[in-house]
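Appendix B. Raw example, untouched.
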Amino acid sequence: MSGAGKWYKNLVFRKKVFLSHLAVSLIPVVILGVFCYLQTRSLLIRREREVLRETLEQTVLRMDASLENYQHVMENLVWDVNIGKALDQQYQNNLEMYCVYRDVIDPAVRQMKLLNPQIKKLTIYSSNKTLYPHGDILRKVQEASWLELSGEDYKVHWKADESGVLELYCKIYGEDKHNLHVVYMELDYSRVFGWLSGLFETNYGVMIANGGASPAYSFATSADEHGGSALTLSDLNCGAACLGDYVLEQREIPANHWKVYLYRPVKAVSSSALSITFLIVIAVGICLFIILAVSALLAKTMVQPLTRLIQNIDQIAGENLEVMVWEESQDEIGHLIQSFSRMMDRIHYLVNEVYKNKIARQEYEMKMLQAQINPHFLYNSLSLINWKAIMADQTEISEMAQLLSTFYRTTLNKGKSVTTVKGEWDSTCSYIRIQSIMHSGKFDVEQHVEASMMDCEMLNLIRQPLVENAIGHGLDHKEGNGKKKLWVSGREAGDVLEFEVKDNGCGIPEEDIEAVLHTQTKGYGLSNVNHRIKLYYGEAYGLQMESRLGEGTRVLVRIPKKN
């Protein structure tokens, strides 16, 4: 058995009931608390996704409107017929060129910059050799080494990176296919994208991917206790494997097909559930306190009757048979206590009415047997017979009187139920001699007892009934011409004294032995002797009997050795 199992097994029943009820009650409460927390967390994450989705949609709409406005500015210049003709015209002198700058190009460019403060630079690049550079408004196309335009490419090109550059350019439509004209616009990076850093107060990130190796814009709050950190473009491209700890939403800007990513750490989202989690913990704590109190009360209520029963049993072990516990409930414990009370009442009755009465009856019967003869009158009478026999020279009568006197003196034993082995032996020897004279010596006797056991204590009147039974029921009914014989002996066997009475008489059937040893008779037979020994010394001692028809009977007496 494991240590935990042995520990639980050795607990008192009250603690077992308390712990069992506590465990059974705690499991659903803990499961309910965890379920509430997980559901709350899941609900917050779903709500956060909705918030991110709505925020991102508003962001994309605003960003698309802003970028689309710049594209319209670009397209107004690109498709302006006057600007196209002015750029394609071959100029003969500076006056013509100045008039074009003053009346066509400068007003168009400055008006656009004035209407759109986010435009930091608006420049037209041209390959017309007759045009001279004009400040930042008109420059030679050779200076724009970054141009990557095909012959028929009239769409707006966007360029942006995290270094703070936001540019767009587009080829101007013109009828002269020999010249290349490009409108270049540089926007204020911080004014176009700066407002994205205020979408949320904390714990979020936003990124605009332009399809290149680096994003057009990226912003993330610094790492904190909730695990917020900036994601890279490669993290966003690797999919769910890198984004398991983030709530992420993405949308495309229709104006230039850039993708906008908006994300927040899951831990940061979960942190908003702290107040709800705190309430859940308080509710679970209150439930636990109630469970502890109820478990302790139930354990005490359930086990209290058993505790009283155990205390009563301990008193019974101390030989106090008075039952002081009672339970009126009709459950299993009440039924057990009621049954125990009825059982103890019955035991108490048996002990007082049967056991003690039987002992008293045995003592009474013994005293009745002893009181059947008045000792003083008997002794005086036997002394008179002995004196008369001696005067008349009748030795056999004198011997008989002396044997009877010895027999009754040792048998009556002054009314005591305990004597010595020597006293019991003298009584038995006197009785055997009397029987031998009465039977005219028709049976032989062998008697032997170990001298070391003569001073040991034993019950009075034990062997004489056995000898009487052997002679009266065994030898007297022996058939045939064989010599009748009686054996009487005593020996020590460790802590036990053994006395044996054996005859070669008629014997009895084997199936009748138990009846002889346990059936009460009117006289003082074997069952009486066996019962007295067991009452006085215990069930481990008593008579053992063996017999065979036509061969004889052997009776063995076993009692404890007491000096």
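End of appendix B.
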